[in-house]
Amino acid sequence: MTVSEAKQGEQSNQITTTGKLFPDGSAIDQLRGRQLVLWQQGHAHIGSTVDCGGRTYAPAIFDSNLEQVLHLPAGAEDPGCAADLIADLREALRTHVGLDQDSALLFAISSLATWVAECLPGPLLMNPWGPPGTETALLDLLGCLCRRALRLAEPALHELARLPAGLAPTVILTRPSERAFRRLFAAAGDPDTYLLSGGDVVHVHCPIIVCTQKPVPPPALSVPLLPAAMPRITKSEAQALADRFQPRLEHHRLVNHLHVANSQFDAPGFCPEARLLARVLGAALEGAPDLQADLIQALGSVDQQHKTGKSQTPAALALETLLALSHAKCLVAHVGKITDAVNGHLETRGENIQLSPRAVGEILRQDLGLSARRRPQGYELALDLNTQRRVHRLAADHNVLQPVAGCPRCEEVSVSIPTENQSVSGA
Questions:
Q1: Which pLDDT tens digit goes with each residue over 286-315?
Q2: Is the same domain home to 389 and 250?
Q3: Are 255 and 141 in the same domain?
Q4: 231: domain range?
Q5: Is the torsion defined by CA of 94, 99, 100, 105 positive or negative?
Q6: ω into 224 cis (within 30 of 0)
Q7: Radius of gyration of the chain (CA)
Q8: Do 99 and 244 reside in the same domain of the chain?
Q9: Which residue, of 51, 75, 210, 260, is most buried by count of CB atoms within 10 Å of its CB?
């Protein structure tokens, strides 16, 4: 066998990869210049190939333009404690973008989370929003901090599916069409969703940053931006920032991915939308309880906004009426009377709208999952035990529950839904 044949045989046994995480805590990731880093048993090894689990891995071949755009790190560098890394990220966001303390913290944690996105318990969707031009410096900086950042004009799923397997870039979009964005998020936002492309099953899961003029609904982390006289980050500054932060972020991925995947962090005192955000971002901080507590504090205003918004919807007003009827021990609730009460609340608030019984019936059915039955006197909702329990839990979710002493349904909800001072938990 010639030397050339031996090399070809050796290469044929190699597994091409852009990165791989192992259940025992080992990890492989692709670096700049077609190098791989292997994290195993507390040590990092860098080479053109690496051996793990009896197999030899080689780096994927990127288009030269793609490798340059992705800002791949040159190595892995111990960042010290997580608090120091987040503090440095936060300061960079404040210095280069002019963000306030809480917004800088949320984007710092989100940037860190992109490096362990496939280990998170939910989708990672960041949504800076505001007038055109307010996002320029922020997106420049996030392109340096996030893992394999890829800025696109319009998200094309078939093109993302053609990228090297496992690349999982952080996709950055600036004011895409709503239809294109929704298709992308439906396919790439959920880590357990796959696509069929050319007869193959393709995984295109990736963290997403979408900049819009108005906030995107949950599960997005929507952060408003204010006009700031911040200059654009030059290419040389961008490379310097990437070289400064990415080796430290790479080290965090290699060392902590298993802890992140096993995180039980939760914020049960939050509303469902804010709770999911807390679980996703808090998992990226697993092992740093002080930072997780800072995250809960920073998300407090997000939680309150969601709760306030829900409490002012027609669905919340209908729930208030149903609660009152339940506490009055009524056996049924007539949709016509619920409609009168909802319209009365809207009029008191100065709202220039009036809902029909049919519209309220649709709210009960579609928004609250409560089905009214047709009777000779009109549609009515039976307030049986199961319905009362659902109404109480929905009222708590919509932030309109006013507990009544002696009501067993109120007591059930109070026990099952923690208060704000019980909102931080972990494994």
A1: 999 999 999 999 999 999 988 888 888 999
A2: no
A3: yes
A4: 82-307
A5: negative
A6: no
A7: 26
A8: yes
A9: 260
